[in-house]
Amino acid sequence: MADIASELSVACGAAFEALGLDAKLGQVRRSDRPDLSDFQCNGAMAAAKQARRNPREIAGEIADKLKDHPAIADLTVAGPGFLNMKVTPELLAQHVTDIGVSERAGADAAHDTQTIVIDFGGPNVAKPMHVGHLRSAVIGDTLKRLCRFLGHTVIGDAHLGDWGLQMGQLIVGLSEEQPDLIYFDEKFDGTYPDEAPVTMDDLARLYPKASAKSKSDESYRERCQLATAELQAGRAGYRALIRHFINVSIAALKVDYERLNVSFDLWKGESDADPLIPDMVEDLKSRGIAEESDGAWIVRVARDTDKGKTEMPPFILLNSRGGVGYHATDLATIVDRVETIKPDLMLYVVDQRQALHFQQVFRASEKAGYFAEDKLEHIGFGTVNGDDGKPFKTRDGGTVRLSDLNQMALEEAEKRIGEANLSSDLSEAEVRDIGLKVALAATRFSDLQNTRTTDYKFDLERFTSFEGKTGPYLLYAAVRIKALLRRAASEGNAAGEILIQSPTERELALQLDGFNTALEQSFAKRMPHFLCEHVYNLAQAFSAFYAAHPIAAEKDEALRASRLAICEAVLKQLETGLDILGIITPERM
Ligand code: ARG
């Protein structure tokens, strides 16, 4: 289902073509001056340059060709050659009707569907997630939902950090506490009990301790490095042990992710790339892509075109002890994905501060011919800051755990629900459920509404407010429509033929028509805030319409039926949009 802007673009493009000009000049979009017109086309100015003619004259000729178009109610030429168009109420009504019956709330599916890997979340084994993990989870999960909605095949991979020094630190830490565990026996044969020897609490205690100790105690650090090397070389007891660490961590991580309505298709990790590394390293060495340097193997990724900028440093593929790091596992993971998933595109939703790492890995992938660099995208994001404009910290300066943040959001949401007295006739279980949904909406929307690449300030009080550009405000708008439709149904009133008459109805219809553009922009730029903007403007336009007209209480039957149908279309699109943002609308609140 094409939106009005594209429908008009086709007509306008044909008019340009009929004058011997490029059809692309006929691009039509929503007007910058909604008080003057609904849509505009600025192509006459560019056409004038190309054809060395007067732009107003061209605009006039285009207007002549378009003026009888059935969708156009009014057409004027303004300024140097802007074409301003107002569309007919019938056209608007038709579009709102289509949105109401469309399963996709009026959105097009992508023309060429792709298989897309989205690497997001990126939690690390044994380390509790902190506020820095929020953005990757929420942005990545939203891009996954958006791509799926558009018809792409998406594989979301958590890409666990389960292969570095932290694993050796955990092994050594545990061996000090429980040296008799069979996993530490060098003759361990690989059969091990199903039951994990540690809980998440153990891991959360062991890791900071071991990590601190390996900073201050050199011989301890060497033991941790040795354990890491032995693990990577395949020592059976260590491999079995880290499998337990990974499983225990995943179970704990899932609890935090569930609160954020975030899920993954794959829980692979850095360690899964390990079996591919020997062949990959051989391949890179044999083709001269990896070079020996001071006993280590490095890959050079600088290019002539870097001249004038700071040259991109080489990265270490294999260190002098034969150990591999973050670059090697990421490169081997590309090889793995190419073999097992055969994707067309891979997106990495990771903190902006890792930009250099990804540039290096992507260039190496291109250089080795594993996967084209332009199909590998680092989707970086800014930082969540506190009041002081610095990365958000707890009062005593520690990092904020994601689980604490989720809890704070829930408590604040419950407080707001209490204040708004929304819950007077709801059961305790319902209040809890609504609290979770309000907290979810608050957390996800407040993150997603920001331009991805910018930092934002964490302000729970503002995020959970039922007013302003917030998740809870949007839920409230959707729930209000649900209540209104329930009331109408209970009074035996049904939706009917849509009429678009008043200014607020027109505005609402035009806003509904913008869904496609918002989705396209969000996808093209990998930026969910365009969709946030759309759903917010839709809720605002609905509010204005709601304030201007009686709906369920409208006496005129045709008007009431029309307005109920408009409400249905708005609700459908609002819920669809919120669902893509990972926000769940309650039935009541
Ligand atoms: N675990 C990493 C970290 O905490 C993020 C992983 C991102 N994904 C990747 N393929 N490197 O920084």
UniProtKB/TrEMBL annotation:
InterPro entries: aa-tRNA-synth_I_CS, Arg-tRNA-ligase, Arg-tRNA-synth_N, Arg-tRNA-synth_N_sf, ArgRS_core, DALR_anticod-bd, Rossmann-like_a/b/a_fold, tRNAsynth_Ia_anticodon-bd. Coiled coil: none annotated. Its EC number is 6.1.1.19. Its main location: cytoplasm. PROSITE patterns: AA_TRNA_LIGASE_I. Residues 474-589 form the DALR anticodon binding domain. GO terms for molecular function: arginine-tRNA ligase activity. Gene3D superfamilies: Arginyl tRNA synthetase N-terminal domain, HUPs, Isoleucyl-tRNA Synthetase, Domain 1. Keywords: Aminoacyl-tRNA synthetase, ATP-binding, Cytoplasm, Ligase, Nucleotide-binding, Protein biosynthesis. It is an enzyme of class 6 (ligase). It is found in: Cytoplasm. The keyword Signal does not apply. Residues 2-87 form the Arginyl tRNA synthetase N-terminal domain. It catalyses: tRNA(Arg) + L-arginine + ATP = L-arginyl-tRNA(Arg) + AMP + diphosphate. A motif ('HIGH' region) lies at residues 123-133. Monomer. Belongs to the class-I aminoacyl-tRNA synthetase family. HAMAP family: Arg_tRNA_synth. This is Arginine--tRNA ligase. It comes from Ponticaulis profundi. The gene is argS.
